[in-house]
């Protein structure tokens, strides 16, 4: 099966993109994708909130292990059931450590499956500020989005998609995750092909023509 690893800062739009990609892949004229396996913190760690998953270094390590384990099972299961090529696995998480992304690549290649990385960026400024102590404009927007999501969930005024995606406990947690983010690099064989997606270039999300601009270049590589 094709395997897609999403990477990016917290609350930048990875889950929204994952849902749009899944929808478009299933309806693509090639009809090559028949099934989607969408892996995230809510599926790998169903008994924990996102805030708990990233509450400390131990929980982060446990969360990464759970995500990798589910990714491994999905890839192996598809290969064993002769579903290779028709099932798309999307790993929707921060995936912020370079060595961790290499391990995911090894899982896909061991199963003989295609693999790519998609870097979701809140704006093109993410590349400029990624290793800086100064937050990018997109990170400020992400914090605002996270707080709005937190308020809705805690007040009970949320829908299922917001609830499943969860929220980070505070701005400091998000800042620390951003500082630890190691940007993907197409020069690394385990991150090639690498697709960079600036989600703000196609806002709002609910217009089909803009959705196609986002996901069609990627669908052609499935």
Write a brief caption for the model.
The protein has 222 residues and is an alpha/beta fold.
Describe the SSE topology.
Blueprint: E1 3-8, H1 14-27, E2 35-39, H2 41-44, H3 50-53, H4 57-80, E3 87-92, H5 98-110, E4 115-121, H6 125-129, H7 137-155, H8 160-165, H9 171-179, E5 194-198, H10 208-219
Parallel strand pairs: 1-3, 1-4, 2-3, 4-5
- The span between the termini is 9 Å
Question: What are the low-pLDDT stretches, counting only 5+ consecutive residues below 50?
Answer: 205-209
How confident is the prediction overall: mean pLDDT?
82
Which structural category do the helix and sheet elements fall into? alpha/beta
Number of helices: 10
What's the arrangement of strands in the largest beta sheet? 2-3-1-4-5
Architecture overview:
This protein is of the alpha/beta class and 222 residues long. Helices cover 50% and strands 13% of the residues. The protein is built from 10 helices and 5 strands, in the order E-H-E-H-H-H-E-H-E-H-H-H-H-E-H. The chain has helices at 14-27, 41-44, 50-53, 57-80, 98-110, 125-129, 137-155, 160-165, 171-179, 208-219, and strands at 3-8, 35-39, 87-92, 115-121, 194-198. A 5-stranded parallel beta sheet has the order 2-3-1-4-5, with helices on both faces. Helix 1 packs across helix 10 (208-219) and helix 4 runs parallel beside helix 5. The model is unreliable at 205-209 (pLDDT under 50).
